[in-house]
Structure formats: C-alpha cells, structure tokens
C-alpha cells in the first residue's frame, strides 16, 4: 500500500514552521552585537542589501527544491544528480552536529527558568563565605550574575583539558530539553505543525511586552541613541559587509536541509516564492525589533552601572574625607575632586587609585553577544527591574520558544531523509526513529554538561557549521543551475506550481549568489589560515585568590575585578577531538593542526570576554576589541 | 549606599560612622549612643558596672563619624578594643534598631557584620518545578506514543480483516464484483420439478 506523504494542514503551518526555524537565538543575541560593532544604524544598509541579494534568492532556492523534489535533503539531491547525494548527507551531518550542541542552550534556558521562581533571584546575590563575614571571593571579584553562570550553572573548569565530571543538574535539564523536542517531532508534521503556532507567535508577544518595559526603563534612551546613531564610515569597512552577509546566511538557516525538509511537506502547487519573501522579511525585521529591545535594556543596565559607580565614588570620598552627607553629588563631583586634590594632596593620592572613572560611554561600549549576552547581561538588567521574577520567567520562556523552534527545524532536517529512506522506515515506525535520533543526540550532548563543556560548546559553535554550510550552499546552487539545468528546473517548477520563475531569481541563482558565497568562503578560509593558532577564553577561579592588589599592571589578564579572562597557560597540544567528523575534506586536518590554545597577549582586554553565536564566523583576530566588562560591582 | 568600606583607621579604637543622609545628630543622639555602648559592655561578664560616663566620644565630624573609647571604672585606662568590638558585635542588632539604621548605614570600622545567610529550603525550588514539568512532558509523550501504537494496530488489523473475509467467501460463494454468485451451486444440485414428470409418465413394467 502506497503511503502518501504527510502534508502541512494549511500553508500557514509551513510559513510558521519556517519562521519559527529561522527566527532563533541568533536574531536576539547576534544581530544587536553586529549592529553595535559596525556602525549602528548604518549597519542596516549592508544588512538589507545582503538580504535582497543573498538571503531571499537562496531561501527561495531551497524551498523550491524541497517542494519540487518532495523529499528530504538526501533524496532531493539524489534526484538532481546521483553523484550529488553527498550534499544531502553533508547537510544531515551538519544538522546532526548542530542538534547536538544547540539543545544545550535550551537546557541552560530551562535551568534559568526553573531558578526564576525564587525570591531573591539566585543570580542577584552572592552567596556568603564560610564565616559569614562576606561574600564568596569569586563572586565578589566578578559579579553575582557571572558567578551564577560560571560557577552554579556551568561549574566551569579552568581549561579545556580539565574535563571534570558530568554535572547532573545541567544533564537533567538537557534530558528534559530533548524530551520536549521529541514530544514535538514525535508525530512528524502532525505534531510539529501544531507546535509551530506557539513557537512562532509567542516569542513576539514576549518581545512586545519587553519592548514596552524596555522603553519605559530609566536610561533606555541612552542605549537606543547609542545604537541607532549611524557611523557612516563603517560602510567602507569590508568587515561590515562580510558580517552582514554571514549573518543573513546563517540566520536563515540555509544549507542545513531543514528548509528542504519543511518544503517537501508542501502541496505541489504551493506559492513558495511568496513564502520565501515573507519569511526572510519577517526574519530580518525580528532581528531589528529584538535589537531595539536589547539596546533599551543595554541602556538601562549601562545607566544603572554608571550611577552606582558614581555613588560608590561619592561614598568613598565622603568617607575618606569625612564630608557631610549629601554634600557630594553627581553634579559637583569633578569640582570637589579637584578641590580635594589641591587641599589634601597626600590623602587624595592615597585614595586616588580606588577612584574609578565612571563613564556612561564605556559602559555602553561593552559589546556582548551570545551566551554572555543572554545569560549574563540580560540577567543583570533583569535583577534590577521591579518584579524581577516575572521578567525573568518571561525572558527565559521566550528563549526556550526560540530555541525549541529552531530545534524543530534541525531535527526535521535529520528525520525527513531517514524517514524517506525505504530501508529504515520499513523496519521502524517513525516514533522509534525520532526516539533513536533524540536519544543519540542527548547522549552525545552530555559532553557539554561536563565542567569543560562550555569550551567544547564554543568550539562546536565556532567551527561546526560555518565553512561546511558555505560549501554546501555553494554546491547546491551550482548543482541546481548547472548540473540539473536552470531551464529544466524552471519548466518543471512552472508545471508544478503554475508560476514562472522571475528573471531576478534566475540571475541571482546563476550568477550573483554563487559569487558571493565563493568570496565569503575564500575570506573565511584565508582568515583561518592567517590567524594561525586559535585561542579560547577561559574562566579560571584559581587566579581569583591570587588577586590582592588592584593594579591593572599586574600579571597579564588579572583585573581589578579579579575575573580572570585569559588562560595563563603555555602551549598545549590540541585536544584530540573528533573534528574529523566535523568536516569532510582537507579542512578537517587543517583545523586539527591549527587548534591550539595560546598564551594571551598582555594588552588583551583584561576583562572577561565570552562570545557565542550559532552560525557565527570565527573572528579571533577581532577578539581583542570585543570586551565585556566584568561588571562594575 | 550599600558598600562596606574596610578602611583601617590609624587609632586602635573602634570608630563609628553613620552614613545615612542628613541624620539629625545632636547631643541627645550622642547620649543614646553612649548608652547603647554602655549597655553592650554591661552584658559582658566582669563589666556589669560600666556607666554611660565611661564611654567617651571624640572627633565628631559633620559626616557623623567619630571615635569612641570605653574606660574602665577607675578611669585610668581604656578597655582593649577587642573586648569592645566583641561586645558591640553581640548587640549590633539592638544598636542598629535604636537608631533605626542597619548594618549598611551604621558602620563600625573593623567590626565586620555577620551577614544573614539566605535560607535554603531543604529541597531546592528548581527541582520541584523541574519535576513537575518533566512529568507533564513525559506523560504527554507516553500518551502520544501509545495512541500512535494503537492507531498503527488498528490500521494493521483493518486490511488483514478484509483479506480474511474474502478468502472465506471464496470457499463457499464465488464472489464476482463483491456480489455472491447464485447460490445454486451451493446446494449441489436442485431437482427441477418441471422435469421430474418424465419418470412418472413411463409406467413401470
């Protein structure tokens, strides 16, 4: 008996599935960072250009292929040409790696969500030390939010070599995260189709609530003004254009096979051109929308930190010189400082090293992305809001929705080809196949719950998908246009949907987009090669106790706040890490040779730095400028 | 105004500092302070005879910070700082409350305050919530799987039942187009009465 292919109940489900897949964590925590780094409002110019030139055509290509071939990525590319089924296999493999590490973020979001039901929030106060006279030193030197993230959540080890044991708390959360994903993909499109209504729509509700809350926060306008002030000179910076192209590329999730999988469940006559345009526009608008929210929160946090820094300086001076309370205010601070310097020079010079230069600009300039943004900066802002439990719950719920929505697409990319394969689906029902895939991913994902897990996470995030995807999409485009034949595809597609292919798409598919991808590919390859030894940032609690003084000129990487940034190690051999599986071809061996961790330069920013982004390109050479100040506490 | 500064003063005696804004500090407040210190010292065994007059304040500044010492009854020497410090530490709460201040706004230099620990519930809250959500998701998954298995079984039984009935009929009734043929064959022959009379016409010999 011939089994008919399951279909989406309505085209709306398909659109929501694509939106919920494309709109993910990268929109929330990568785009605002890029906007800040590359000129604020003026970054929108390369962003929109790349969207039109690269994002929409490639998205349409994948949807068209999926809808026409009506199979998962392996089957679809095998239909294009039997020699090209490797492209499909590559997509499945990359999706597999992505699934393995991406769900760990959901596990962390669950962890924070469960901890949001306490008063006070656990990351807002430092725990007390042994004799209850003060706070734990690590927390004191860093900030309570960082302490909660590095010590309580990750229990991070000082270096990647010290793996430590699997932490049972994140492991439990990971199991739960996989169980939720399994629940959603269990029945294929029947279950996924219902879930995507929530995962696509609810994050917008939360974002709107946060927008209203964010804009009414004190100091929000500082952040917004800072972000949207265009710095036109950045338009001439090629990095801005490259990052815009990369962001569009990875944000839409091209090359993983998820879009092909989703489109294969479409009616043959579905108008996927309209859907491609809608999805890409919604994805980009969400990025911009989320960055407005993020920057109002940034502004609030920066203003709050600036004001508390000022208050501390005022307190310090008031106490040292026994001034009357209320005498020193933010307005007359500078004059009084000058007066004190001239009137009591010796005492002033004693106190002077402890006086910090409070600057709103420097607070705003701390650009953060990735888990650092989501789990440290945002939580720091949330803990200062009223009714912080509510905001915390809302925020992590939104992160979960975004994360699970993207996971649905990623698992669909793996499951659809497996279920299409007659060999496997004849032996096992689809529930069993999904279950096995989820179980395998969960088991491998336990690596990321070890003490060194977040370093592994960094590696996966930076290297698992970037070059592979560029190559896959390049081969896809070339295969469709030149191997299968653009005119042949066009006529078949027209017969199927009843609509002709616009000349714009043909020009893009045939010429512009492949060229763009080739140039991106060459850029990243050369960046890898030029960078030489790669490095990672580590959090070393042991260094904290060594910090007694407040001098910044101490040994490298120790700062006043004591949060150790850099790993004070010597050259270590590369971890023997199965990167052989990560990529096919010579790139693999290249990476194994290149992956070292090295002693950091003394002039590297002394504060802790942590970046992450799904689909991020490695920009190790830029890391020195990307500093996150370890809190002005 | 929530930071505890840990500056070490030059003199070995405790120093008190009040950091709330514009606290109305006058001689009566000073008297109250002396009384509280004397009260704290009286709680120490051997020092029950401490009087208010034994507590001396000096160097009162506009910041409302001053040095104070406690002399012994004979007014010859001051009591060791350690003793005074421990006495004050024991009664810190009372002293704070007398002035409607707290540890952050009334600071005794070199008398670190004992911070109140957060009460940890015996079962961490997050585990409870985790357990609830985990069970819900598990139950939902089980239900979906079971209903899927049931559907699968029903589908398998459906076509196989159809096949069984078809086989049975073929042995008994030839089915053409799903309609059983004329049941004439079943009975293995009928005697048509119309032709029976032939035998009766011929008379037996």
Automatic annotation (TrEMBL), chain A:
* One Pfam short name: SNF
**Which domain of life, per UniProt?**
Eukaryota
GO cellular component terms attached to this protein's record? apical plasma membrane
According to the UniProt entry, its GO molecular function terms are: L-proline transmembrane transporter activity; metal ion binding; proline:sodium symporter activity
Coiled-coil annotated spans: none
Q: Which UniProt keywords apply?
A: Glycoprotein, Membrane, Metal-binding, Sodium, Symport, Transmembrane, Transmembrane helix, Transport
Kindly give the membrane topology term recorded for this protein.
Answer: Multi-pass membrane protein
Q: Give an example GO biological process.
A: glycine transport
Where is the chain membrane-spanning?
12-31, 43-63, 83-114, 165-185, 197-220, 240-265, 277-298, 393-415, 436-457, 463-486, 507-525
Subcellular location(s): the record lists: Membrane
Which parts of the sequence bind Na(+)? 22-23, 27, 251, 283, 402, 406
NCBIfam families annotated for this entry? Na_transp
What family is this?
A: Belongs to the sodium:neurotransmitter symporter (SNF) (TC 2.A.22) family.
Protein name, per record: Transporter
Give the species this sequence originates from: Odocoileus virginianus
Its organism's taxonomic lineage begins at: Eukaryota, Metazoa, Chordata, Craniata, Vertebrata
Gene that this polypeptide is encoded by? SLC6A20
TrEMBL record, chain B:
Per UniProt, what is the membrane topology?
Answer: Single-pass type I membrane protein
Collectrin-like domain sequence ranges? 4-205
What the entry lists under PROSITE patterns is as follows:
COLLECTRIN_LIKE
Its signal peptide is: none
Protein's recorded name: Collectrin
Residue ranges of the TM segments: 123-146
Pfam families given in the database record = Collectrin (PF16959)
Q: Which InterPro entries match?
A: Collectrin, Collectrin_dom
What is the native source organism of this protein?
A: Odocoileus virginianus
Keyword line: Cell membrane, Glycoprotein, Membrane, Phosphoprotein, Signal, Transmembrane, Transmembrane helix
Where in or outside the cell it occurs: the entry states:
Cell membrane
* Phosphoprotein listed as a keyword: yes
